[in-house]
Amino acid sequence: MARMGIFDSAISLFRLLDPERAHHLAVWALARGLGPRFDGPDDPLLASEQWGLRFPNPVGLAAGFDKDAEAFRGALQLGFGFVETGTVTPRPQPGNPKPRLFRLTEDRAVINRYGFNSAGVEVSAERLRHRGAGIVGANIGKNKESEDAEADYIVGATQLAPLSDYLVINVSSPNTPGLRALQDRAQLSALITATRQAATEACGGESKPLLVKIAPDLTDEDKQEIAATVNETDTDGLIISNTTITRPAGLMSGDKDEAGGLSGVPLFPLTRTLVGEMYQLTRGKVPIIGAGGIAGGDDAYAMIRVGASLVQVYSALVFHGPGLIPRIKSELAARLRADGFAKLEDAVGADHR
Ligand SMILES: Cc1cc2nc3c(=O)[nH]c(=O)nc-3n(C[C@H](O)[C@H](O)[C@H](O)COP(=O)(O)O)c2cc1C
After folding, report:
1. pTM of the predicted model, to two decimals?
2. What phi and psi values does residue 109 have, to the nearest 5 degrees?
3. Among 48, 118, 173, 263, the one annotated catalytic
4. Ligand 1 centre from 332 Cα, in Å?
5. pLDDT tens-digit profile of 226-282?
6. What does 53-108 look like in DSSP terms, one character per residue?
7. Has 253 been annotated as catalytic?
8. Which of 65, 243, 299 to mutate to test the pocket of ligand 1 (most atoms within 8 A of CB)?
9. Of 143, 161, 246, 338, which sits 20 to 30 A from 179 (CA to CA)?
10. Tell me: the pLDDT tens digits for 174-183?
11. How is residue 266 annotated by DSSP?
12. Domains of the chain (ranges plus CATH)?
Protein backbone atom coordinates (compact mmCIF):
# COMPACT_ATOMS: atom_id res chain seq x y z
CA MET A 1 0.00 0.00 0.00
CA ALA A 2 2.90 2.36 0.80
CA ARG A 3 4.07 1.68 -2.72
CA MET A 4 0.64 2.64 -4.00
CA GLY A 5 0.99 6.08 -2.36
CA ILE A 6 4.36 6.54 -3.96
CA PHE A 7 2.98 5.46 -7.30
CA ASP A 8 0.01 7.81 -7.09
CA SER A 9 2.37 10.70 -6.39
CA ALA A 10 4.43 9.52 -9.31
CA ILE A 11 1.33 9.64 -11.52
CA SER A 12 0.80 13.28 -10.59
CA LEU A 13 4.43 13.98 -11.48
CA PHE A 14 4.01 12.07 -14.75
CA ARG A 15 1.31 14.54 -15.75
CA LEU A 16 3.81 17.36 -15.52
CA LEU A 17 6.05 15.60 -18.02
CA ASP A 18 5.81 15.65 -21.77
CA PRO A 19 3.32 12.80 -22.54
CA GLU A 20 5.77 10.63 -24.47
CA ARG A 21 8.40 10.94 -21.73
CA ALA A 22 5.76 9.98 -19.17
CA HIS A 23 4.86 6.94 -21.29
CA HIS A 24 8.51 5.87 -21.51
CA LEU A 25 8.97 6.35 -17.77
CA ALA A 26 5.91 4.22 -17.00
CA VAL A 27 7.17 1.43 -19.28
CA TRP A 28 10.66 1.73 -17.78
CA ALA A 29 9.30 1.46 -14.23
CA LEU A 30 7.01 -1.51 -14.98
CA ALA A 31 9.81 -3.29 -16.85
CA ARG A 32 11.81 -3.14 -13.61
CA GLY A 33 8.99 -4.32 -11.37
CA LEU A 34 8.64 -0.87 -9.79
CA GLY A 35 4.85 -0.70 -10.06
CA PRO A 36 2.40 -1.57 -7.30
CA ARG A 37 1.10 -5.15 -7.02
CA PHE A 38 -2.62 -5.73 -7.29
CA ASP A 39 -2.35 -9.29 -8.56
CA GLY A 40 -3.94 -11.06 -5.61
CA PRO A 41 -6.65 -13.62 -6.37
CA ASP A 42 -9.55 -12.19 -8.36
CA ASP A 43 -13.23 -12.51 -7.50
CA PRO A 44 -14.19 -15.90 -9.03
CA LEU A 45 -17.22 -14.18 -10.59
CA LEU A 46 -14.85 -12.38 -12.97
CA ALA A 47 -13.17 -15.50 -14.36
CA SER A 48 -13.98 -16.84 -17.82
CA GLU A 49 -12.59 -19.15 -20.46
CA GLN A 50 -11.99 -18.09 -24.04
CA TRP A 51 -10.11 -20.01 -26.70
CA GLY A 52 -9.14 -22.57 -24.06
CA LEU A 53 -7.40 -19.89 -21.99
CA ARG A 54 -8.52 -19.18 -18.44
CA PHE A 55 -8.82 -15.42 -17.89
CA PRO A 56 -8.77 -14.63 -14.14
CA ASN A 57 -10.57 -11.36 -14.87
CA PRO A 58 -11.74 -9.68 -18.09
CA VAL A 59 -9.73 -6.46 -17.85
CA GLY A 60 -6.73 -6.34 -20.20
CA LEU A 61 -4.07 -3.79 -21.10
CA ALA A 62 -4.68 -2.60 -24.67
CA ALA A 63 -2.00 -2.61 -27.37
CA GLY A 64 0.28 0.39 -27.76
CA PHE A 65 1.43 0.75 -24.16
CA ASP A 66 3.96 -2.11 -24.20
CA LYS A 67 4.85 -1.93 -27.88
CA ASP A 68 8.13 -3.82 -27.57
CA ALA A 69 7.18 -6.39 -24.91
CA GLU A 70 9.24 -4.82 -22.14
CA ALA A 71 6.70 -4.27 -19.40
CA PHE A 72 4.11 -7.06 -19.68
CA ARG A 73 5.20 -8.78 -16.46
CA GLY A 74 4.94 -5.56 -14.46
CA ALA A 75 1.59 -4.86 -16.15
CA LEU A 76 0.25 -8.30 -15.16
CA GLN A 77 1.29 -7.52 -11.57
CA LEU A 78 -0.99 -4.48 -11.68
CA GLY A 79 -3.87 -6.95 -11.78
CA PHE A 80 -4.69 -7.08 -15.48
CA GLY A 81 -6.28 -10.35 -16.57
CA PHE A 82 -4.19 -10.21 -19.75
CA VAL A 83 -1.77 -7.92 -21.56
CA GLU A 84 -1.42 -7.26 -25.29
CA THR A 85 2.03 -6.33 -26.53
CA GLY A 86 2.70 -4.47 -29.81
CA THR A 87 1.90 -3.30 -32.32
CA VAL A 88 5.21 -4.64 -33.54
CA THR A 89 6.50 -4.36 -37.10
CA PRO A 90 8.84 -6.90 -38.76
CA ARG A 91 11.76 -4.48 -39.05
CA PRO A 92 12.61 -1.72 -36.56
CA GLN A 93 11.23 1.70 -37.51
CA PRO A 94 11.20 5.06 -35.72
CA GLY A 95 7.55 6.09 -36.22
CA ASN A 96 6.45 9.66 -36.87
CA PRO A 97 8.35 12.80 -35.84
CA LYS A 98 7.71 14.16 -32.32
CA PRO A 99 5.54 15.52 -30.82
CA ARG A 100 3.16 12.65 -31.57
CA LEU A 101 1.29 12.08 -28.31
CA PHE A 102 -1.14 14.59 -26.77
CA ARG A 103 -3.10 14.54 -23.53
CA LEU A 104 -6.56 16.08 -23.83
CA THR A 105 -6.97 16.51 -20.09
CA GLU A 106 -10.32 18.32 -20.07
CA ASP A 107 -11.75 15.58 -22.28
CA ARG A 108 -10.09 12.67 -20.49
CA ALA A 109 -8.78 11.72 -23.93
CA VAL A 110 -5.54 11.15 -25.82
CA ILE A 111 -4.53 11.79 -29.42
CA ASN A 112 -1.60 9.78 -30.76
CA ARG A 113 0.12 9.59 -34.10
CA TYR A 114 3.04 7.40 -33.03
CA GLY A 115 2.95 5.61 -36.40
CA PHE A 116 4.17 2.19 -35.19
CA ASN A 117 7.47 3.12 -33.59
CA SER A 118 8.83 -0.38 -33.10
CA ALA A 119 12.05 -2.11 -32.08
CA GLY A 120 11.13 -4.84 -34.57
CA VAL A 121 9.76 -8.33 -34.15
CA GLU A 122 13.02 -9.98 -33.14
CA VAL A 123 13.36 -7.84 -30.03
CA SER A 124 9.81 -8.71 -28.95
CA ALA A 125 10.39 -12.39 -29.70
CA GLU A 126 13.50 -12.49 -27.55
CA ARG A 127 11.66 -10.91 -24.62
CA LEU A 128 8.57 -13.12 -24.98
CA ARG A 129 10.70 -16.25 -25.14
CA HIS A 130 11.16 -16.14 -21.35
CA ARG A 131 7.80 -14.81 -20.43
CA GLY A 132 6.44 -16.88 -17.50
CA ALA A 133 2.84 -17.01 -16.29
CA GLY A 134 -0.07 -14.79 -17.33
CA ILE A 135 -1.95 -14.33 -20.60
CA VAL A 136 0.00 -12.30 -23.15
CA GLY A 137 -1.21 -11.51 -26.66
CA ALA A 138 0.90 -10.21 -29.54
CA ASN A 139 -0.44 -7.49 -31.82
CA ILE A 140 1.25 -7.38 -35.23
CA GLY A 141 1.40 -4.79 -38.01
CA LYS A 142 3.32 -3.79 -41.11
CA ASN A 143 6.28 -1.52 -41.74
CA LYS A 144 5.45 1.89 -43.17
CA GLU A 145 7.64 1.42 -46.26
CA SER A 146 6.63 -2.17 -46.90
CA GLU A 147 5.02 -2.85 -50.28
CA ASP A 148 3.77 -6.29 -49.30
CA ALA A 149 1.53 -6.09 -46.24
CA GLU A 150 0.74 -9.80 -46.24
CA ALA A 151 4.42 -10.72 -46.08
CA ASP A 152 4.85 -8.46 -43.04
CA TYR A 153 1.99 -10.08 -41.12
CA ILE A 154 3.39 -13.49 -42.02
CA VAL A 155 6.73 -12.51 -40.43
CA GLY A 156 4.96 -11.31 -37.27
CA ALA A 157 2.83 -14.44 -37.03
CA THR A 158 5.72 -16.81 -37.68
CA GLN A 159 7.88 -15.23 -35.00
CA LEU A 160 5.31 -14.45 -32.33
CA ALA A 161 2.54 -17.07 -32.58
CA PRO A 162 4.64 -19.71 -30.78
CA LEU A 163 5.56 -17.24 -28.02
CA SER A 164 2.17 -15.69 -27.26
CA ASP A 165 -1.30 -16.83 -26.17
CA TYR A 166 -3.16 -15.06 -28.95
CA LEU A 167 -2.31 -13.08 -32.05
CA VAL A 168 -3.93 -9.85 -33.25
CA ILE A 169 -3.95 -8.62 -36.84
CA ASN A 170 -4.00 -4.85 -36.48
CA VAL A 171 -5.56 -3.32 -39.58
CA SER A 172 -6.98 -0.29 -37.84
CA SER A 173 -4.29 2.12 -36.69
CA PRO A 174 -4.88 5.45 -38.42
CA ASN A 175 -1.22 6.47 -38.48
CA THR A 176 0.19 4.08 -41.09
CA PRO A 177 -0.86 5.14 -44.58
CA GLY A 178 -3.09 2.54 -46.25
CA LEU A 179 -3.37 0.25 -43.21
CA ARG A 180 -7.09 0.67 -42.73
CA ALA A 181 -7.71 -0.27 -46.37
CA LEU A 182 -6.73 -3.81 -45.33
CA GLN A 183 -10.17 -4.00 -43.67
CA ASP A 184 -11.65 -4.33 -47.17
CA ARG A 185 -13.28 -7.76 -47.58
CA ALA A 186 -11.02 -9.33 -50.20
CA GLN A 187 -7.81 -8.03 -48.66
CA LEU A 188 -8.83 -8.90 -45.11
CA SER A 189 -9.89 -12.39 -46.06
CA ALA A 190 -6.57 -13.06 -47.82
CA LEU A 191 -4.63 -11.53 -44.95
CA ILE A 192 -6.38 -13.60 -42.29
CA THR A 193 -5.92 -16.81 -44.29
CA ALA A 194 -2.20 -16.17 -44.86
CA THR A 195 -1.59 -15.14 -41.25
CA ARG A 196 -3.49 -18.14 -39.93
CA GLN A 197 -1.47 -20.51 -42.08
CA ALA A 198 1.83 -18.97 -40.99
CA ALA A 199 0.83 -19.07 -37.31
CA THR A 200 -0.31 -22.68 -37.46
CA GLU A 201 2.86 -23.78 -39.27
CA ALA A 202 5.02 -21.94 -36.74
CA CYS A 203 3.17 -23.69 -33.91
CA GLY A 204 3.77 -27.16 -35.37
CA GLY A 205 0.17 -27.57 -36.53
CA GLU A 206 -1.47 -26.21 -33.39
CA SER A 207 -4.03 -23.49 -34.03
CA LYS A 208 -3.39 -20.23 -32.16
CA PRO A 209 -6.30 -17.86 -31.40
CA LEU A 210 -6.30 -15.23 -34.16
CA LEU A 211 -8.13 -11.95 -33.65
CA VAL A 212 -8.65 -8.92 -35.86
CA LYS A 213 -8.62 -5.39 -34.44
CA ILE A 214 -10.93 -3.00 -36.24
CA ALA A 215 -11.45 0.76 -36.43
CA PRO A 216 -14.44 2.61 -34.99
CA ASP A 217 -14.79 4.60 -38.23
CA LEU A 218 -16.62 2.11 -40.46
CA THR A 219 -19.62 2.39 -42.78
CA ASP A 220 -22.55 -0.02 -42.40
CA GLU A 221 -21.32 -1.86 -45.47
CA ASP A 222 -17.83 -2.21 -43.95
CA LYS A 223 -19.34 -3.69 -40.81
CA GLN A 224 -21.36 -6.27 -42.74
CA GLU A 225 -18.38 -7.24 -44.84
CA ILE A 226 -16.12 -7.62 -41.81
CA ALA A 227 -18.74 -9.80 -40.11
CA ALA A 228 -18.99 -11.94 -43.25
CA THR A 229 -15.19 -12.22 -43.43
CA VAL A 230 -14.99 -13.27 -39.79
CA ASN A 231 -17.43 -16.09 -40.50
CA GLU A 232 -15.81 -17.18 -43.76
CA THR A 233 -12.30 -17.28 -42.38
CA ASP A 234 -12.90 -18.80 -38.93
CA THR A 235 -11.47 -15.77 -37.21
CA ASP A 236 -11.39 -16.40 -33.46
CA GLY A 237 -12.34 -12.93 -32.26
CA LEU A 238 -12.57 -9.20 -32.81
CA ILE A 239 -11.01 -6.34 -30.91
CA ILE A 240 -13.30 -3.33 -31.07
CA SER A 241 -11.88 -0.79 -31.39
CA ASN A 242 -8.78 1.15 -32.26
CA THR A 243 -8.63 4.96 -32.02
CA THR A 244 -10.94 7.22 -34.06
CA ILE A 245 -9.98 9.75 -36.70
CA THR A 246 -13.27 11.57 -36.02
CA ARG A 247 -13.52 14.36 -33.48
CA PRO A 248 -16.80 13.92 -31.60
CA ALA A 249 -18.64 17.19 -30.88
CA GLY A 250 -17.94 18.84 -27.57
CA LEU A 251 -14.17 18.28 -27.28
CA MET A 252 -12.72 21.11 -25.21
CA SER A 253 -8.96 20.60 -25.13
CA GLY A 254 -6.57 22.84 -27.02
CA ASP A 255 -4.98 19.87 -28.79
CA LYS A 256 -8.25 18.43 -30.11
CA ASP A 257 -7.38 19.17 -33.73
CA GLU A 258 -3.97 17.49 -33.67
CA ALA A 259 -3.73 14.83 -36.37
CA GLY A 260 -3.92 11.22 -35.21
CA GLY A 261 -6.22 8.78 -33.46
CA LEU A 262 -8.39 9.85 -30.56
CA SER A 263 -8.93 7.52 -27.60
CA GLY A 264 -10.36 7.83 -24.10
CA VAL A 265 -13.77 8.92 -22.80
CA PRO A 266 -15.11 10.50 -26.05
CA LEU A 267 -14.51 7.19 -27.86
CA PHE A 268 -16.68 5.17 -25.48
CA PRO A 269 -20.09 5.76 -27.13
CA LEU A 270 -18.72 4.94 -30.60
CA THR A 271 -17.07 1.75 -29.43
CA ARG A 272 -19.99 0.60 -27.34
CA THR A 273 -22.37 0.99 -30.29
CA LEU A 274 -19.98 -0.82 -32.62
CA VAL A 275 -19.50 -3.71 -30.18
CA GLY A 276 -23.29 -4.12 -30.08
CA GLU A 277 -23.58 -4.01 -33.87
CA MET A 278 -20.77 -6.48 -34.48
CA TYR A 279 -22.10 -8.82 -31.78
CA GLN A 280 -25.40 -8.93 -33.61
CA LEU A 281 -23.87 -9.19 -37.08
CA THR A 282 -21.67 -12.10 -35.99
CA ARG A 283 -24.56 -13.55 -33.93
CA GLY A 284 -22.37 -13.69 -30.84
CA LYS A 285 -20.32 -16.52 -32.39
CA VAL A 286 -16.87 -15.01 -31.78
CA PRO A 287 -15.67 -13.41 -28.57
CA ILE A 288 -15.28 -9.63 -28.77
CA ILE A 289 -12.74 -7.62 -26.79
CA GLY A 290 -14.21 -4.16 -26.17
CA ALA A 291 -11.76 -1.23 -25.92
CA GLY A 292 -12.46 2.48 -26.03
CA GLY A 293 -12.80 4.94 -23.20
CA ILE A 294 -13.36 2.44 -20.41
CA ALA A 295 -12.65 4.37 -17.21
CA GLY A 296 -14.61 2.48 -14.55
CA GLY A 297 -16.57 -0.65 -13.71
CA ASP A 298 -19.81 0.78 -15.13
CA ASP A 299 -18.17 1.27 -18.53
CA ALA A 300 -16.75 -2.26 -18.52
CA TYR A 301 -20.16 -3.65 -17.52
CA ALA A 302 -21.94 -1.71 -20.28
CA MET A 303 -19.43 -3.00 -22.85
CA ILE A 304 -19.98 -6.59 -21.66
CA ARG A 305 -23.76 -6.26 -21.75
CA VAL A 306 -23.69 -5.15 -25.41
CA GLY A 307 -21.50 -8.10 -26.36
CA ALA A 308 -17.89 -7.91 -25.17
CA SER A 309 -16.50 -11.03 -23.50
CA LEU A 310 -13.36 -9.19 -22.40
CA VAL A 311 -12.35 -5.52 -22.25
CA GLN A 312 -9.13 -3.53 -22.59
CA VAL A 313 -7.99 -0.23 -21.14
CA TYR A 314 -5.31 2.25 -22.07
CA SER A 315 -6.11 5.99 -22.02
CA ALA A 316 -7.84 6.03 -18.62
CA LEU A 317 -4.59 4.86 -17.04
CA VAL A 318 -3.03 8.17 -18.09
CA PHE A 319 -5.53 10.04 -15.96
CA HIS A 320 -6.26 7.61 -13.12
CA GLY A 321 -3.04 5.62 -12.66
CA PRO A 322 -2.80 1.92 -11.82
CA GLY A 323 -5.33 2.06 -8.95
CA LEU A 324 -7.89 2.11 -11.77
CA ILE A 325 -7.46 -1.62 -12.41
CA PRO A 326 -8.56 -2.98 -9.02
CA ARG A 327 -11.32 -0.36 -9.00
CA ILE A 328 -12.74 -1.47 -12.37
CA LYS A 329 -12.66 -5.09 -11.21
CA SER A 330 -14.43 -4.50 -7.90
CA GLU A 331 -17.05 -2.20 -9.45
CA LEU A 332 -17.70 -4.70 -12.22
CA ALA A 333 -18.10 -7.60 -9.80
CA ALA A 334 -20.53 -5.51 -7.72
CA ARG A 335 -22.61 -4.65 -10.81
CA LEU A 336 -22.75 -8.27 -11.96
CA ARG A 337 -23.83 -9.42 -8.51
CA ALA A 338 -26.41 -6.67 -8.14
CA ASP A 339 -28.02 -7.76 -11.41
CA GLY A 340 -28.04 -11.41 -10.35
CA PHE A 341 -25.38 -12.79 -12.69
CA ALA A 342 -23.64 -15.86 -11.27
CA LYS A 343 -20.79 -15.52 -13.75
CA LEU A 344 -19.39 -12.98 -16.17
CA GLU A 345 -20.23 -15.01 -19.26
CA ASP A 346 -23.96 -14.84 -18.47
CA ALA A 347 -23.86 -11.04 -18.83
CA VAL A 348 -22.19 -11.06 -22.27
CA GLY A 349 -24.70 -9.68 -24.77
CA ALA A 350 -27.46 -9.48 -22.12
CA ASP A 351 -28.76 -6.24 -23.65
CA HIS A 352 -29.77 -8.13 -26.80
CA ARG A 353 -31.88 -10.72 -25.02
C1 LIG B 1 -0.64 6.20 -27.16
C2 LIG B 1 -1.43 5.10 -27.78
C3 LIG B 1 -0.79 4.20 -28.62
C4 LIG B 1 -1.51 3.17 -29.21
N5 LIG B 1 -0.87 2.27 -29.99
C6 LIG B 1 -1.55 1.19 -30.49
C7 LIG B 1 -0.88 0.20 -31.23
O8 LIG B 1 0.33 0.23 -31.42
N9 LIG B 1 -1.64 -0.82 -31.73
C10 LIG B 1 -2.98 -0.92 -31.52
O11 LIG B 1 -3.60 -1.90 -31.97
N12 LIG B 1 -3.63 0.00 -30.80
C13 LIG B 1 -2.95 1.05 -30.29
N14 LIG B 1 -3.62 1.99 -29.54
C15 LIG B 1 -5.09 1.87 -29.37
C16 LIG B 1 -5.45 1.19 -28.05
O17 LIG B 1 -4.98 -0.12 -28.02
C18 LIG B 1 -6.99 1.18 -27.86
O19 LIG B 1 -7.56 0.38 -28.87
C20 LIG B 1 -7.61 2.56 -27.92
O21 LIG B 1 -6.76 3.51 -27.33
C22 LIG B 1 -8.96 2.62 -27.21
O23 LIG B 1 -8.84 2.34 -25.82
P24 LIG B 1 -8.71 3.48 -24.70
O25 LIG B 1 -9.76 4.51 -24.99
O26 LIG B 1 -8.91 2.77 -23.40
O27 LIG B 1 -7.33 4.05 -24.83
C28 LIG B 1 -2.92 3.04 -28.96
C29 LIG B 1 -3.54 3.96 -28.11
C30 LIG B 1 -2.82 4.98 -27.52
C31 LIG B 1 -3.54 5.95 -26.60
Report:
1. 0.97
2. -135, 170
3. 173
4. 22
5. 999 999 998 999 999 999 999 999 999 999 999 999 999 999 999 999 999 999 999
6. EEESSSEEEPTTSSTTSSSHHHHHHTT-SEEEEEEE-SS-B--SPSP-EEEEGGGT
7. no
8. 243
9. 161
10. 999 888 888 8
11. G
12. 39-347 (3.20.20.70)
